[in-house]
């Protein structure tokens, strides 16, 4: 016998051959979520096939019925990089010193694309999947996690393009100097994904009640990019206002990434530690808000 399907609990089934209630052996349980900080990672692992299905769906949906298909994964960062080189490098005079502009801007674009795309899609997960959430139960966190993973695949492809550009300049013996801090790359990727997940869960929960926040989302992400040293070197920022830029936890991630692969930028363990702590504080807050809204969001979406 299968238990009812709820929107915020576990499915519970029972052996039909049980003779009395004491012989009942439950294989699945439906119960209300009582802990705001419970992420249910074990349950997400049980639904790993569903997560991978969502990953495949997101990846295919992005390039379905497009002329160039997956080629856009390479073309988009290149076109964006060339635009930044022309506008901010040539016209605005934000060109970096001692490092090729193509490598400099491509590093920032590669990092920012992963963060912004993950944040943008995670922030609308309740709105975009309201019908599915209202019909059947599955761990709600599988959806944001699948977004983080699907965008990670795209990031790794663009990251390979960036590595190719770095090798090109190394062969030409230009001023690109990778160093041991490359070993921090997995940590930086984890921090980016976690930060986007935390911010996304907060915004997604808020948009269930305040829908107009969705319209501000794209604008807000663009403003956040200007508060992050993506299109300019951090060293160009005035010391008077540099602390405002470093207050953004993405800033030290971008700078560390550039410093590791190009040998250009400002690297400081204290800045990176601050970003690491802020990342998990934001995930902590996002978890609380997400779990709280998850219980009743179908009534407001």
Topology:
Blueprint: E1 13-14, E2 26-28, H1 41-46, H2 48-63, H3 71-91, H4 101-122, H5 125-128, H6 130-135, H7 142-171, H8 185-207, H9 213-226, H10 242-246, H11 249-262, H12 269-294
Antiparallel strand pairs: 1-2
Helix pairs in contact: 2-7, 3-4, 4-7, 4-8, 4-11, 7-8, 8-11, 8-12, 11-12
Describe this entry's structure for a reader.
The protein has helices at 41-46, 48-63, 71-91, 101-122, 125-128, 130-135, 142-171, 185-207, 213-226, 242-246, 249-262, 269-294; strands at 13-14, 26-28. The chain has 301 residues and is mainly α. Residues 1-15 have low confidence and may be disordered.
Helix count, per DSSP? 12
The parts where pLDDT drops under 50 for at least 5 residues are 1-15
- How many discrete domains? 2
Class computed from helices, strands and strand pairing? mainly alpha
Distance between the termini: 32 Å
Q: Which H/E pattern describes the elements?
A: EEHHHHHHHHHHHH
Average pLDDT level: 80
Estimate the global geometry from the Cα principal axes.
Answer: globular
Radius of gyration: 22 Å
Q: Considering DSSP H and I runs of 4 or more, what fraction of the residues is helical?
A: 55-70%
Q: Kindly state the number of beta strands.
A: 2
Share of residues in strands: under 5%
Biggest sheet, spatial arrangement of strands: 1-2
Please state the oligomeric state of the protein chains shown: single chain
